[in-house]
Amino acid sequence: MNSTPSSERLHITLFGIRNAGKSSLINALAERNIAIVSDRPGTTTDPVSKAMELGELGPVVLTDTAGLDDEGELGMLRVRKSLERLAWTDIGLFVTPLHEPPHAAEYEALEKLGASSVPLAIAATHADLPAHPRKEAWIAELEAGRYLLSPLLGVARVSTKSGTGVSELRSMFARAASSGKLNENRLSCSRETGLLEGLVEQGDHLVLVTPIDAAAPKGRLILPQVQVLREALDRGCSCTVVQPSELARALSALLRSPRLVITDSQAFREVAAILPPEQALTSFSLLFARHKGELSLFRAGLERLANLQRDAVRQTAGTKPIRLLGIEACTHSRTHEDIATVKIPRLLAERTGRQVALTMLREVRDVSIEDDFDLAVVCGGCMITRRRMQTQLARLDEAGIPAVNFGLFLAWAHGLFPRAVLPLGESAQTLLTI
Ligand code: SF4
């Protein structure tokens, strides 16, 4: 609990053919043995991730992947799994042995990597051996900007034996992160808006409402609550943390109104009923959607909800069930009042007067327009990176499926939209015109 959560780290993934030197390079970058190095091709079979501090770059997750030239049915599956990592990669590190000619699988893989929006760095390994002229020529073409659509951060000639080029790679990553280069793509991935940035000032008092119910983990708060609390403290704010049942008493003990009340979305209605209408109120989930730059991406989902409700009022809704796609990015044990599988479908049915047919997924991979979902509701994604979440939302957008997150859905369902997004300032503007 005392280290940076994986979702807040920069994710760097190494791609390359078998025996390109990926595992040696990961060890050299980390300055310790975290990957198994062997001369036998195919030693790394599944992606292996390791969280670490990388000098001036700070907290990162380095991922070693299986060789992109892996063979056979199983090998092809591994290659697919390796390339799937692009969805949550902030920087792709393409590793190619400088002393060998370009491999057919490298052309193919680079085409896929280069067509993504993921910024790439190239590590030409075995730089202590004589370079192969065809590989040198290929790298020169890549440096000149041929074949790649994604931004090229640079090429480093690396020898893990002598250590040449390793610090150059680290500096390349750090420069890219600090220059904002990683933000140039639509699926931007680096510096995010702080959870409370622009919303509070030093000396403010905040009230955090955290229900401890059957769904709460034993003996601890959940990650979003801990992160908001920590940021409030970092910003010089004081906090009262209460359960909904203690909220009224806690408020009456305060000498002045809190700057902001932040609640678990599931307690929205209960909390709103206790607060005076002028009290600024939002949820952990909405703060995270703003933090990860997703708020504006939920506009289409809110419009769909407004249309569904309008149809219900006009009694023009028809009898077809609403096809709802629920997406939860991690597994957890479900309770009888589970938010995704019980509460949201029930509330949607109550608000629209229609039955709801629910499909649950962990990750959006194979949803297409033929699936014909009316709406997707996505979890807050506290365990995954901003890039991975935005990739999910982009896939839903491509498939024509409007989406909202759990927090926005619950705010809407409890009649707290737009109140719950008003405290979020400019980032919520696009939602307020619905
Ligand atoms: S389901 Fe989503 S919001 Fe809930 S803990 Fe997992 S990643 Fe976080």
Percent strand equals: 15-25%
Query: What name does the CATH topology of the largest domain carry?
Result: Rossmann fold
Number of DSSP strands? 14
The value of Rg in angstroms is 24 Å
The residue fraction in helices comes out at 25-40%
- How far apart are the first and last residues' alpha carbons, in Å? 40 Å
Query: Helix tally?
Result: 13
* CATH homologous superfamily identity of the largest domain: P-loop containing nucleotide triphosphate hydrolases
Shape: globular
What would CATH call the architecture of the largest domain?
Answer: 3-Layer(aba) Sandwich
Mean pLDDT: 86
Tell me what the structure shows:
The protein has 434 residues and is an alpha/beta fold. The chain folds into 3 domains: 178 residues, 3-Layer(aba) Sandwich (Rossmann fold), CATH 3.40.50.300; 84 residues, 3-Layer(aba) Sandwich (Rossmann fold), CATH 3.40.50.11420; 135 residues, Rossmann fold, CATH 3.40.50. Helices cover 33% and strands 17% of the residues. The radius of gyration is 24 Å and the shape is globular. The structure holds iron/sulfur cluster (SF4). The site of iron/sulfur cluster (SF4) has 9 residues, from loops.
